Amino acid sequence: MHRNHHLKATFLILNTLILLFGTASYVAGIWQMLRGKYKPNTFSRVIWLLLAINSTAGVVLSQSSPASVLLAWVFLIGNTAMCVISFWHGTRRFGYLEILCMTLLLVSAVLWIASPNPLLNLGIGLFAHLVGASPTFKSVYQNGKSESLAFWSLFFMASVFSLVASIGSPISSVIFPLYFVVFDGTMMGLCVRKNR
């Protein structure tokens, strides 16, 4: 009884930390947008929002761990907010990268219809996310100050807490936070390295 109470309290603390750090990362990104320090491509933000919807659906339907689901919802809500704000504080470009990400998104949509496997769809969605982020990797590698260290490090911490809260769960149920620990951790490392 005492052990169960302790476990519930631990999960509550970890879920609160996921919510706080995840939300704080998007607040930091939005604050930069409002101050004119970050002007995302509106078309890219729309595609990233569609990818976030796709990924969140994949996480929920693949019966991922509760902490993974919470992180996915924070990811979706944060991307929604940034997409909406980009209509007033963003740029308008539609190039090859947007076409490629949209194509991957369409492939994922076809697989949703053809296959009942949400994990496959989640994998394609995360791959599209990685492809879409490739220019950001290049930019931050060349200039660490081109990206917000706060944005990447805060969501990295939220993802770490999500993994910790999911200890004991099968690897298939923590693909989402595991991806963002690696992805955001790499971005954070590049920002710190170049800032030095």
Task: Write a short abstract of this structure.
The chain contains eight helices and no strands. It has 196 residues and is an all-alpha fold.
What does this structure look like?
The protein is mainly alpha-helical. The protein has helices spanning 2-34, 42-61, 66-89, 96-114, 118-132, 134-142, 149-165, 175-195. The longest helix is centred in the N-terminal third of the chain and has 33 residues, at 2-34.
Quick tags:
196 residues, mainly alpha, 81% helix
Low-confidence sequence ranges: none
Q: Please give the share of residues in helix.
A: over 70%
Radius of gyration, whole Å: 17 Å
- The separation of the N and C termini measures 50 Å
Number of strands: 0
Silhouette: globular
Strand content: under 5%
Count of helical regions:
8
Helix-strand sequence: HHHHHHHH
For the largest beta-sheet, the strand count, sense and barrel status come to: none
The chain-level mean pLDDT equals 85
- The assigned structural class equals mainly alpha
Write the layout of secondary structure elements.
Layout (H helix, E strand, L loop, with lengths): L1 H33 L7 H20 L4 H24 L6 H19 L3 H15 L1 H9 L6 H17 L9 H21 L1
Helix pairs in contact: 1-3, 1-7, 2-3, 2-4, 2-5, 3-7, 4-5, 5-8, 6-8, 7-8
